Amino acid sequence: xxxxxxxxxxxxxxxxxxxxxxxxxxxxxxxxxxxxxxxxxxxxxxxxxxxxxxxxxxxxxxxxxxxxxxxxxxxxxxxxxxxxxxxxxxxxxxxxxxxxxxxxxxxxxxxxxxxxxxxxxxxxxxxxxxxxxxxxxxxxxxxxxxxxxxxxxxxxxxxxxxxxxxxxxxxxxxxxxxxxxxxxxxxxxxxxxxxxxxxxxxxxxxxxxx
Length: 210
Ligand SMILES: *[C@@H]1O[C@H](CO)[C@@H](O)[C@H](O)[C@H]1NC(C)=O
Fold this sequence. Notes:
Elements: H1 6-17, E1 36-41, E2 46-54, E3 62-67, E4 77-81, E5 98-103, E6 109-116, E7 123-128, E8 137-141, E9 155-159, E10 165-173, E11 182-187, E12 197-203
Bound molecules: 2-acetamido-2-deoxy-beta-D-glucopyranose.
2-acetamido-2-deoxy-beta-D-glucopyranose binds at residues 42-43, 142, 154, 193, 196.
């Protein structure tokens, strides 16, 4: 027999409806085109990162990791439209839309393809300058009430070509020359929170006046 506790359900709804984000101005709550963001892996609080270190396996392209440091300009990514498209600076990003993320310091795009990732047996995620459709990622908002990609909200990034999801895990950590950095790879959707990311600090452009 199931015991229904309506009181608890109401409590849960109430709690999630009242979570406020007090320190962000209304117009900066949406992630907008042209903004440079840091993407936080929620489970580890590490940031999506790249640097001029190539993979020793797989494609040999520039590696992507997740790092603990907050003040690291190698963790800034510019939000751009999908390959062959443009979006206006300040344009909000609808949930379900296709974007590219350009690594600000090295100008390469977050990319994935059919190479194996070094540790977790997923697909490799690299930073690539070739500009092809392997750079396209779909923003999946986990809060179905939201129409746009919101700062601080949990999103998944699904790789458009392979259907796999941007992932990182505290179980897959590199040694030298990048000790303590986590592998970033693309995996099928699992329910362990390893694919939960959110846009937090960064350089945001206010939403355009429509
Ligand atoms: C990951 O996000 C989903 C969707 O918001 C949520 O249900 C789940 O609890 C999150 N997992 C963790 C470990 O935070």
